[in-house]
Each structure stands twice: as C-alpha cells, then as structure tokens.
C-alpha cells in the first residue's frame, strides 16, 4: 500500500511539473494542399479606399491595440474583388471603409481568450481558425463620398449584440437601406455576409487558403 501511495504521489508531481501540450494551443492548425499566401494591401490597389483599423488602436472590444500597424491585407483575388465593389459604389456616391482584413492567427487567439463564453459566437475559435486568418474575410462599411463620413448602420463595428445580425429587423429604414446596399454589392463579387455581423464578409475561395500567422511587418505585399 505504501509503494502504491508513493507511485500515485510521484505521478501527481510529474503532471504538475511537466507541461501538457493538450492544454494550450500555441500555433495555428496545420492544413495541406493549400495555396501559397499572396497577400496584397487594399489601399495600395486603390488609394481611395478608406482605412479605419481599430485593432491598431485602443478603441476596440479588447481595449488595447493588437496590431502594431494600421494596415489591411487580403489574398489578391479577394482584394481585387473588394476594389471592384468600391468602384461600383463610387457610381452611387459611396465608398468602402475597411476595419479589418487578413488577421494573424495569434490575434484570433487573443480575441478568443478575452471574450466571455456567452459572446464567443462573435469571435473565431483558434482551434479551427478564422477566415480572416486565411486572408479571405473583410470587415467593412460604407462612407458618403460627399461628406467623407460613415453612413448609418444598425450598430457600430464589433457590436456583440443581436442587433449586429444582417437580418436584424429593428433598424431604421435608412440603416436597413445602407446595410442591404453593402450586402448586395459585396455579393456581386463573390462575398457572403456573416450571419452574426453585418460588416463581416467572406470571399468564395477561402477554403483554398491555409491559416496563417504572418505578422504585418513580415508580409511581402505586392502592388
């Protein structure tokens, strides 16, 4: 009995002192047969696209900057599709403002860790990664070309309530009109709106790309 107790005690000490890799994930999930990253900077393709990269500032749901640079990248096909939407909108007196594009996996993990469980439908699980991590998702809205100001939408960016849903029916007529204009124009170029966030759109080819954890400073962006 004494030897058995000693064995159990040593086992408890071992699992306490030796880290167990299953408890934490410190790298993105591996995927095979995916395209090489070809990230391009959105406002390098069209300098009239506006940037409002709040994750490079403290006015976001995390409460601090998680990006060191206010930049927005996407895979080239997705980025070129966004530019085409922007050009179509300009004919209607509007333009696109970008909140976020490609997001390193390590930032997705930060989002998951700081988000309460009852709000995690608004953030991606790092175990499976995000379409932002693949460079094929974009968070955006519309601005009025005449005033340069954001148009009215049902909520602000990164609102963690049911009002952020693209099907929320309690918005004003103007807010609904703007939301629907954005959705319809994005759909013409192969994007699908996220069911929880009116501002989040996924590009049709997202499954062809891997989950990346490349820092903005390390992106070899092409124009």
Mind explaining what this structure looks like?
- 27% of the residues lie in helices and 13% in strands.
- The chain has helices at residues 2-17, 42-45, 76-90, 105-114, 173-187; strands at residues 39-41, 50-51, 73-75, 94-100, 137-144, 191-193, 200-203.
- It is globular.
- Strand 6 (191-193) and strand 7 form a beta hairpin.
- It is α+β, with helices and mostly antiparallel strands and 223 residues long.
- It has one domain: Muramoyl-pentapeptide Carboxypeptidase, domain 2 (2-Layer Sandwich), CATH 3.30.1380.10.
- It has five helices and seven strands.
- The strands form two sheets. Strands 2-4-5-7-6 form a five-stranded mixed beta sheet, covered by helices on one side.
Quote the beta fraction: 5-15%
Order of helices and strands: HEHEEHEHEHEE
Q: Can you list the strand order of the major beta sheet?
A: 2-4-5-7-6
Oligomer: single chain
Instruction: Please count the beta strands (DSSP E, at least 2 residues each).
Output: 7
Integer tally of domains: 1
Q: Give the number of helices.
A: 5
Distance between the ends: 72 Å
Q: Which parts are unreliable, with pLDDT below 50 for 5 consecutive residues or more?
A: 1-23
What is the CA-atom radius of gyration, in angstroms? Answer: 21 Å
CATH class: Alpha Beta
From the spread of the alpha carbons, the general shape counts as: globular
Structural class: alpha+beta
CATH architecture: 2-Layer Sandwich
